[in-house]
Each structure stands twice: as C-alpha cells, then as structure tokens.
Amino acid sequence: MPHTPDQVLTAAQMRDAEQALIAKGVSVDELMQRAGRGAAEWIWRISGGRAVTVLCGPGNNGGDGYVIAEAIRQRGGSVRVIAASEPKTAAARTARSLYAGEVLGRDADATGDVLVDCLFGTGLTRPLEAYDLALLNRLAAEHPRRVAVDLPSGVHADNGMTLNDGLPDWHLTLALGAWKPAHFLLPAARTMGALRLVPIGVDVLPEAGRMIGRPRLAAPACDAHKYTRGLLGVVAGAMPGAAVLAARAAQGAGAGYVKLLGEGQGGPADLVIDNQPLAEVLTDSRFAALLIGPGLGRDATARERLAIALSEPIPAVVDADALVLLAPRHLAERKASLIATPHDGELFALERAFGLDGSGSKVVRAEALARAAGMVVVAKGADSLVAAPDGRVAYVPRATSWLSTAGTGDVLAGAIASRLANGADPFAAACQGVWLHGEAARRTPVPFTAGQLAERIATAFAEVLS
After folding, report:
1. In the chain, what are the domains?
2. Residue whose C-alpha is closest to residue 248's, from 15, 80, 451, 107
C-alpha cells in the first residue's frame, strides 16, 4: 500500500483521504482493521506480555480499540476492554462484534501495565465530558505505561490545543494513516511522548502539509568554486557577536563563501570581513543571499542598514532585530525572495506591522503572515513550523529542549541563509536549515552554548550528503 511518512493532514483532509480509499473499494471495516492491527504491533512490543487495558469510546477510534484488543488476544496476550459507552458507528459495532474477549463497563476495576486510549481521536472539537475525563485520568493513574491511538483524547487535531485542563501524559502516540498538526504543535505535543506512524494506505494529498525530514544534499560539483557554491553576506550591526555566530553556522551549512559585512567589525581568521560601507559592498553582483538581523540593533543606523540590504535584488533572510524593524514599505518594490525567522514575540510584532490581528493557531498565524508579506515564515519555538506564501506548510519534529539558550536562533538563521545562498528555493532552504539546526543540536553534548552548536552544523551537513 502507498506509504507517505511525511504527510500532515488536518481532520478534514484525513476524512477526505479515507473517503478516497473507500471510493476505490476499500471498506471502512478494512481501514479499521489496518489501523487497529498496525497499532497493535506497537502495543504488543511495549506490553511484552504484560496486561493491557484498552479504553474504547463510541466512535471509530473506539472501533480501532476493539481491533487492537482482538489482535493482542489472538497472540495470547492479556487484554481487557473498558467501554466508556456503546459503539455508535457501524464500523465500531462490527469491530466490537469481532472481539472475542470480555467487555467491561466504565466502573470496572482495571489496574494493569499498559493503557491504550481509544476514547476519542481526530475530529474532537469540544472538551471531554467530566465523567469521561475522570475515567481517563483514573485509568491513566492505574497504568504505568500509556499509549494514545491517533491522538490523545481531549486534543484538537488541527491546532494542538488541549480541550480540557488536567489531561494525562502519554508515553507513546500512534498516528493513524497520517500525521496531524497536533502531533507537532504545543501545548498538545508536549503530552504525547514518542511518536510513531501507522500507515493505512492513504494517498498523497497535494494540498497537505508535511513533516520536515532528513534532506538529501549534494557535494559540490567537480568544477565548483566558492562563488558557484554561493556568496552569503551577513550584515553585522551594534552587537557583532551574534552576526559572527550566524556566519560560523553558515560556513558549515554549504555556502562557498561567507562574508561578514560590518563597518569596523572583527572576527575569526577564517571569516572574511568587509568593512566598506554597506551600500558599496552590495554592488557586487556575486552575492547569492544576505542575512540581516542578528546583533543588528534597533537604532537609526540599524534601520538604515536594513533598508539598504532589502533594497537590493538579493534573496535574504531577516532575523532578530530586523524583524522588529521590518515594515511593508521595505517590501513594496522588492522582487527578490525573503525568509523571516520570528520567535513568538517577533511574530506578534510582524503581525502588527502588516495589519494582521494575530488570531488563530500558530499555523494559521504563520500562513496569514506569509501571504500578507509574500515571504517564507519560519515560526520558531518549541513547536517550529515553516509557512510559504503559496500555502505550503512544513512541521518540525520536536527537537531537544537544550536549544533553549541564547544565540541558537542566530545559528538557525545562519544555516537557513547558507542553504539559500547555495541555491535552494526559499521554502526548501528554510526546511533544510531547520533540519540541520535540529540535527546539530542532537549531536552536540549537553549542556551546550550557541557557539558549540554552530560548530556542529557541518557535522549534521556531512550526515546527509548523497
């Protein structure tokens, strides 16, 4: 069956994908068997023969639970089902009829080793009823290992919001058919534990988001030189250390030539410093990309340097202080591509500058800003994502929380700008830079500084050379 491990579908898109399979002759019952038996494989490994309790709700997520229970029972595992209510869909009723074990009521004593949450899955948009929340929490407290099927109950699939306070945490979440936005968005993502995908054969939807995965990068051509690999200018400002940090990351991410553009600035011996006035430096037509923002400052000089940089027809990455200064007037006549890398506070500043109300989920906000400003937006944070003006969205798998230290955003900006200078289109450059940043963090001994992280960008790059 087709397997699309990077596809991220909203609840509506997931329904459409399932309907497309049904239109091809795959029954709802067969889809439920695929999902349930695929999930049972993971649960069987986790349980190791210990007692499993499956909590089944009234819908098709509950039906998946009956399939899981029967698959474990057939293998000789210890399993029992607690039904929060009677099945209300035809497929769920069929799955229950095929389960040959005992079904217990919601008040049953159910201590065990592994709890499987099949109460509610994708499509839930309202809080759990108090009696369902109490049941879920009671069972979670009685089981040391907890697995959520598709999504934890009480989570909104599209925006990652938790619909109730006091929901339990999970050690593993098994996405059915495709990833959902909530698997990557806070606050829900922090409750899900490890993530695994159970394929059921859904086809690729062209309009779907995707998860950023391992890129495939190439070594330089045999006739390459520093300019064909890309000349990147990093515009320095009031605090040159941040620009140097970004430049060091850029050196490891593929650009052939990185210049620090700073009036009177210094830097490491292997980093070229150009102290000429910025307007003169940028007359060099060989620049493939610019990075402006790290350490720029917010005074009159910073505003002037931003205006000069963005007036040139050179693809650019705008980060840090430059994001606070960026305004529609800077982009009014701009033709070259632009990537912005805001954290939450900078995202708010950009929304205000571009006349947006800042409402909706992080995905909705990033998409709106990308459209309004005509630029790729890397909305940074513990749940980073990338949005393009044409509607493409890419979600970032959770990275190490050790990235929560000063300067790591400068490293990310340098990696993205380097990929842009190397010739990647803006959306791809953003995704590649984000991946390199996360992989470098994974490879850096903790706790680390931003400088140590920057030095590992090259190691991450070498890992994906094809």
Report:
1. 7-210 (3.40.50.10260), 231-463 (3.40.1190.20)
2. 451
The model's pTM = 0.94
Chain segment 246-271, per-residue pLDDT in tens: 999 999 999 999 999 986 566 677 89
Give the span between the Cα atoms of 346 and 265, in whole angstroms.
Answer: 26
* DSSP secondary structure string for all residues of 122-140: TT--SPPPHHHHHHHHHHH
Percent of the chain with pLDDT over 90: 94
Distance in angstroms (rounded) separating the CA atoms of residues 161 and 188: 6
Other C-beta atoms within 10 Å of 182: how many?
31
| CA distances for 98 relative to 19, 27, 33, 51, 300, angstroms | 23, 16, 11, 20, 73
pLDDT digits (tens, 9 = 90+) for 389-437: 999 999 999 999 999 999 999 999 999 999 999 999 999 999 999 999 9
Residue 409 CA neighbour count, 13 Å, CB half: 25
d(CA 23, CA 37): 22
DSSP 219: P
Tell whether the torsion through CA atoms of 46, 49, 50 and 56 is positive or negative. Answer: positive
| β-bridge pairing 376-379 and 7-8 | unpaired
User: By C-alpha distance, which of 408, 38, 346, 303 is closest to 197?
Assistant: 38
Strand-strand pairing, 103-104 and 79-83: parallel
Which helix (H) or strand (E) element contains residue 272? strand 272-274
Query: Does residue 404 contact residue 344 with C-beta atoms inside 8 Å?
Result: no
H or E element that contains 80: strand 79-83
